[in-house]
């Protein structure tokens, strides 16, 4: 959800803006991490969400990407574990960081020098440091184990980056094949078919075979209404994008994704792996379940699943176990809930969550590879057959006309 807030700093400076959070309590907690005292917090209307999206500053790359943050955390952990202070380690990191990231680290270092804690300085830059990252740093500072916390964060970020790269690589070739095939078929219908159609001369279309007439009609539709079709598709895509910026629209789209065969189960696997990895890392860092759960929920991208996790969190606050709450909210599959219940019984919930994350991330990668292994030949054969049907329908008619003319 998106909330509009009015808040002040400790120096009594007024701030007005927007914050995304699963609940008003989580929004207020995030503002506290930024050093802001909330005066007013209200849920944004659908129109306000769309207006904010349209007026948001466009940024194609954040100053620190997930890859940059993983490498940075790895180096940072080594410096802190070597006994170098936070301020000095930030100075060392600046020299090895790219210019945009160097500016971010310089501002963080300046705030630390002025007396802010490290997690407070990081919380002021949510575009670079996610809430999970900031919370774990805070837990590491409190426990006096910042070095090991940063190393664990680096390992988790590297693992997440590996999963995302596997997903991207698995989908890259089918997407390229789909785009190429669509362009090829469109060129065939718009350029080749009209030239072949001219060979029919003045022959009436009613005397042509059904397949030929269908190909010609499709060609005419693309040539005469192609611009209108493109505009309609663009408007539809824009409308869906804007609907996805509202709570109700995003929820409807994400519910539809979960109900889609194959895709829905894949979304569930990916989201379960992401959620359990975040929750497990937070619990291992010493954060309590009641506080860790809302932060881990922020990592769930599917709004329908996020709503289920929020319902589970509400049940946990009333005294339910984590496994029982997730089962009642139907937030995970049965095998994942079984592992969580086992972890609760043995007092190793954080380890069980990390095992689930590894299991489900591997399962997501295998499912994607299997899907693309099947999808690639299906697309190739499907578009090949379509192109073959178009060529056959036109050439067979031309040959039959030539046969009649020679008799």
Automatic annotation (TrEMBL):
InterPro entries: GspF/PilC, T2SS_GspF_dom, T2SS_GspF_sf. The keyword Membrane applies. The chain crosses the membrane at residues 170-193, 225-244, 370-395. Its main location: membrane. Keywords: Cell membrane, Membrane, Transmembrane, Transmembrane helix. It is found in: Cell membrane. It is a multi-pass membrane protein. Residues 74-194, 275-395 form the Type II secretion system protein GspF domain. Belongs to the GSP F family. This is Type II secretion system F family protein.
């Amino acid at each position: 959800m998106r909330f509009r807030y009015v808040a002040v700093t400790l120096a009594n400076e007024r701030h007005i803006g927007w914050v995304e959070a699963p609940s008003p309590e989580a929004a207020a907690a995030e503002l506290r991490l930024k050093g802001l005292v909330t005066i007013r917090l209200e849920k944004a209307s659908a129109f306000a969400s769309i207006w904010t999206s349209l007026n948001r500053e466009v940024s194609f790359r954040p100053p620190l990407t997930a890859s940059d943050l993983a490498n940075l955390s790895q180096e940072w952990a080594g410096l802190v574990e070597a006994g170098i202070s936070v301020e000095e380690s930030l100075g060392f990191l600046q020299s090895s960081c790219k210019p945009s990231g160097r500016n971010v680290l310089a501002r963080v270092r300046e705030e630390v020098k002025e007396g802010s804690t490290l997690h407070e300085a990081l919380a002021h830059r949510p575009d670079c440091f996610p809430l999970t990252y900031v919370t774990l740093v805070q837990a590491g500072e409190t426990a006096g184990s910042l070095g090991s916390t940063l190393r664990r964060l680096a390992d988790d970020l590297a693992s997440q980056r590996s999963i995302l790269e596997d997903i991207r690589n698995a989908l890259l070739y089918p997407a390229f094949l789909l785009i190429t095939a669509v362009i090829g078929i469109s060129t065939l219908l718009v350029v080749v078919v009209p030239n072949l159609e001219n060979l029919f001369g003045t022959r009436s279309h009613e005397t042509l075979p059904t397949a030929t007439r269908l190909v010609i009609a499709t060609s005419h539709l693309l040539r005469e209404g192609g611009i209108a079709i493109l505009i309609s598709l663009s408007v539809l895509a824009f409308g869906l994008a804007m609907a996805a910026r509202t709570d109700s629209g995003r929820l409807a789209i994400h519910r539809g994704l979960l109900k889609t065969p194959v895709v829905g189960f894949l979304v569930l696997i990916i989201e379960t792996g992401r959620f359990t990895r975040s929750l497990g890392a937070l619990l291992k860092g010493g954060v309590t379940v009641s506080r860790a759960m809302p932060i881990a929920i922020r990592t769930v991208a599917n709004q329908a699943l996020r709503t289920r996790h929020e319902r589970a969190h509400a049940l946990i606050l009333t005294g339910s176990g984590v496994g029982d709450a997730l089962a009642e909210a139907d937030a995970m599959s049965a095998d994942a809930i079984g592992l969580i219940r086992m972890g609760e019984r043995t007092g190793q919930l954080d380890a069980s969550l990390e095992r689930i994350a590894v299991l489900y991330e591997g399962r997501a990668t295998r499912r994607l590879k299997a899907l693309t292994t099947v999808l690639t030949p299906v697309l190739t054969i499907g578009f090949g057959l379509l192109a073959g049907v178009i060529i056959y329908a036109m050439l067979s008619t031309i040959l039959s006309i030539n046969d009649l003319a020679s008799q």
